[in-house]
Design a protein that fits this description.
Layout (H helix, E strand, L loop, with lengths): L2 H15 L15 H10 L4 E5 L3 H8 L23 E5 L7 H10 L5 E5 L1 H5 L19 E3 L6 H16 L4 H5 L4
Parallel strand pairs: 1-2, 2-3, 3-4
Helix pairs in contact: 2-6, 3-6
Length: 180
């Protein structure tokens, strides 16, 4: 073995084991506060389930180990609107249920987002009759997921689109500090 290679290996281990860096460059993170807040928001989305029909089964499958929604920081499904910031409406919405959805959405703390999952929630689907209403006529929707029923991969893609939307928001620091 070459003697110069052993000395360079020893120097490498000395550098790795050294706890003090003379230039002080380690441990510094440079970013804007808006970006840091948006990163935290997009990485810890707590959805509230609102399964109204067959799309809810696909939404439940998304949380299973095969699809593992925990990779995206959204595995904590909440039953209370006061603890969630994302409402996933999965399935057809009737006229009788629309006021309930609106009230639950209004009880959610700011910032809040909504995903419409399935053709029935988006446009009443094949059930085009007087008793159903599209979700976007009741609450504002951020991402629409097409399909009947949409696959869990599509809902994960919608969650990723929502995370991108959250990351691109501006004025987050003023919102957090109530300076708007």
């Amino acid at each position: 073995m070459n003697p110069s290679s052993t000395s360079s290996a020893e120097n490498l281990f000395e550098r790795i084991d050294c706890e003090f860096t003379p230039d002080g460059s380690e441990g510094i993170l440079l970013t804007r506060l808006d970006q840091a807040i948006n990163w935290a928001r997009k990485s810890s989305i707590w959805p509230m389930t609102f399964g109204l029909a067959c799309c809810a089964i696909e939404m439940m499958a998304m949380t299973a180990s095969r699809f593992d929604i925990a990779r995206f920081g959204a595995e904590v499904f909440r039953g209370s609107p006061r603890q969630s910031d994302l409402m996933i409406i999965a399935g057809r919405l009737s006229n009788k249920m629309a006021p309930v959805v609106r009230q639950l959405y209004q009880q959610m703390p700011e910032p809040k987002w909504a995903i419409s999952m399935g053709a029935c929630a988006t446009s009443t689907g094949v059930f085009n009759n007087y008793a159903l209403v599209p979700v976007n006529q009741v609450i504002p929707i951020d991402v629409f997921v097409p399909g009947c029923p949409p696959r869990p991969e599509q809902l994960i893609y919608a969650l990723r689109l929502l995370q991108q939307k959250i990351q691109r928001q501006t004025g987050t620091l003023k919102q957090v500090l109530n300076l708007d």
